[in-house]
Write a structure and sequence with these properties.
- The complex is a heterodimer of chains A (171) and B (391).
- Chain A has 171 residues and is an alpha+beta fold.
- Chain A has one domain: Heat Shock Protein 90.
- In chain A, strands 1-2-3-5-4 form a five-stranded antiparallel sheet.
- In chain A, helix 3 runs antiparallel to helix 6.
- Chain A is globular and about 40 Å long.
- Chain B folds into two domains: 107 residues, STAS domain (Transcription Regulator spoIIAA); 266 residues, Rossmann fold, CATH 3.40.50.
- Chain B is built from 13 helices and 13 strands.
- In chain B, helix 2 links the parallel strand 2 and strand 3.
- The two termini of chain B are 27 Å apart.
- In chain B, 47% of the residues are buried.
- Classes of the chains: A alpha+beta (171), B alpha/beta (391).
- Chains A and B meet through helix 2, helix 3, helix 5, helix 6 and helix 7 of A and strand 3, helix 3, helix 4 and strand 8 of B.
- Chain B: Keywords: Methyltransferase, Transferase, Ubiquinone.
- Chain B: Pfam families: Methyltransf_11.
- Chain B: GO terms for molecular function: S-adenosylmethionine-dependent methyltransferase activity.
- Chain B: This is Ubiquinone/menaquinone biosynthesis C-methylase UbiE.
Chain lengths: 171, 391
């Protein structure tokens, strides 16, 4: 799971790339909402039901954007790449991340594969102390059937690779 | 309503219905942005008896922060008020909603989650029936020859962004696309079989640029101010709350754009010979629909409704679909389909006597007779109205 490079997957077709300076991205909370809505609309146009696809993709994407926002990093860039393979959307989200935060994400992502994921999610929903990022990642796995993996780079950048089978979920 | 909510979402508590409702996009940065709205819910819960409804069917987005905050309030409510039940209502249109909100029931057996995918309006079960598809197809074929001439008078031009709301089987959208070459056309309906039919037809004709979408016309997922021309044909009359639907049509229309509606006045359907029998049956049709909270006498009310909804430059005209327009058998086929649904399904559902149903059916038979008679005349009047959204 934790390597220095994201694997090139020729089966996924690249669709769109969004890059912003972290300082610009984190300057306004509404960037999460506006970017997720705009981008989801763009990449959903040729889906079976573009409107509903954009709605559900925007919801998942917004969660990821909000998670990046919560990272509180202001240096470096925030990069979001979109790919598609058949009924699956792939989101690659790269942003700067401290080693401490990286270890936190690593532990959460490892736990997503656990049989206890749903029980953990219910605990996190009701716990006021659980960090938002924990609830977001569990929520994506439980509510969107997301397959989430992590990749590190020596440059201090962290990449989430999130596969979302949205067409199946919608139909 | 909080400051944040003023342009993103609304929260209300209806004391009479014991219902807390949220509507719109809930993506707060922190829980404090929802404080007033959650207090409204907390206070409301304290006042109810029996069941408290949490209406989330018009929430188009809710982030993790908002969901957790809502869940906390609801869980607290089940503890402070173990004597009441909480019923959360979510929309089937918004795919993430049912998957997210179901967890509330996992958290407490006193919270139930209902997915709102039927009873948008009282007549839905009749018109979403697949047996209705042939009616819709023939009706559009017969009305199009009139509407093709009428629509430009109501502002429709080539190259526009068009939304056809309550599109049914999508045939009107196909005709719009062919004759008015829109830059974009979206067609929305809540009938999955009708949309499946529409998509199949589009695929068979290699039409790829109509965006068909499953949706609730009274709470659409479209952004506001998107479309130059919004059509909604024969549908306001079968909603029990046409004002709600009209507000949505207004919302998605661009300032300066127009909303075009058509509706009937069924009691004005006519025919010769056997005019009296025909007249009696169609008067009864209006009463039958009224029994199910539908107003098929709405046609002439279109002008007032558009003005009340805030439209300007309202235009209105009527046209009569008749047996002389083309093949009289097409007209007869429409009446046959009406007879089958109105007499055999709706009147039966209302509990009408066999004697009433026989007489009711006879009027349709006489209308068919008039349509097919070599010297007969049969008519079905329709009112077309449109209004401009102010700039």
């Amino acid at each position: 799971m934790n390597t220095t490079e994201t694997p090139a997957d020729a089966a996924f077709e690249p669709m769109l790339e969004l890059e912003m300076k972290m300082a610009a991205f984190t300057a306004d909370w509404l960037n999460c909402d506006q970017c997720s809505t705009y981008v989801a609309g763009m990449v959903s146009l040729d889906r079976h039901d573009p409107i509903r696809h954009a709605n559900v993709l925007s919801s998942a994407l917004n969660e990821l954007f909000e998670m990046s926002f919560h990272a509180r990093e202001r240096d470096g860039a925030f990069v979001c790449r979109f790919y598609r393979r058949d009924e699956t959307e792939r989101i690659e989200l790269t942003f700067p991340c401290s080693p401490e935060k990286r270890r936190f994400y690593d532990a959460v992502v490892t736990g997503l594969k656990s049989d206890e994921a749903l029980a953990n999610y219910l605990d996190v929903i009701t716990s006021g102390a659980a960090p938002a990022e924990h609830a977001i990642l569990l929520g994506l796995a439980i509510n969107y059937d997301a397959d989430i993996t992590l990749f590190y780079r020596d440059t201090g950048m962290l990449t989430f690779v999130v596969d979302l089978p949205l067409e199946r979920l919608l139909n | 309503m909080s400051t944040y909510s003023s342009h993103r979402f609304t929260a209300q508590f209806d004391v009479n219905n014991q219902e807390f409702s949220l509507c719109g996009v809930l993506r707060p940065h922190s829980v404090s942005e929802l404080a007033d709205d959650l207090a409204l819910l907390r206070n409301g819960v304290e006042t109810v008896k029996g069941v408290c409804y949490i209406n989330l069917k018009r929430v188009t987005h809710m982030n993790n922060t908002a969901f957790r905050a809502l869940a906390h309030v609801l869980i607290d409510a089940t503890r402070s008020r173990p004597d009441i039940k909480l019923t959360v209502v979510a929309s089937s249109v918004v795919a993430w909603a049912s998957r997210l909100f179901r967890h509330l029931n996992d958290l407490s057996p006193n919270i139930t989650v209902e997915i709102y995918d039927s009873a948008f309006y009282p007549g839905q079960t009749f018109v979403e029936n697949q047996s209705f598809i042939p009616i819709l197809r023939t009706q559009t074929k017969m009305t199009w020859r009139h509407e093709r001439e009428i629509l430009p008078r109501h502002g429709l031009r080539e190259g526009m962004h068009i939304a056809d709301i309550c599109c049914g089987i999508g045939d009107f959208a196909m005709l719009l696309r062919k004759d008015f070459k829109p830059a974009r056309i979206v067609a929305l309906d809540h009938s999955i079989p009708s949309l499946a039919y529409a998509r199949t037809v589009a695929e068979n004709f290699d039409v790829q640029d109509i965006e068909y979408t499953y949706g609730d016309a009274s709470q659409m997922l479209f952004e506001s101010n998107q479309f130059d021309f919004v059509t909604c044909r024969h549908s306001l009359q079968i909603f029990d709350r046409p004002d709600v639907l009209l507000r949505e049509l207004y919302r998605i229309c661009k300032p300066g754009g127009r909303v075009y509606i058509t509706n009937e006045k069924n009691s004005h359907c006519l025919g010769e010979p056997k005019a009296e029998s025909i007249q009696w049956t169609y008067n009864e049709v209006a009463k039958l629909f009224a029994h199910f909270d539908m107003d098929v006498e709405m046609g002439p009310k279109g002008r007032r409704m558009l003005l009340d909804a805030g439209f300007r430059n309202v235009q209105m005209e009527s046209f009569m679909v008749t047996n002389l327009d083309d093949d009289p058998q097409d007209f007869a086929d429409i009446i046959t389909a009406w007879r089958n649904v109105y007499a055999d399904e709706m009147a039966v559902r209302r509990g009408d006597s066999p004697e009433f149903i026989d007489r009711f059916k006879q009027g349709f038979e006489d209308h068919i007779f008039a349509a097919l008679h070599p010297r007969g005349y049969a008519g079905w009047p329709i009112w077309a109205s449109s209004g401009q959204k102010p700039l």
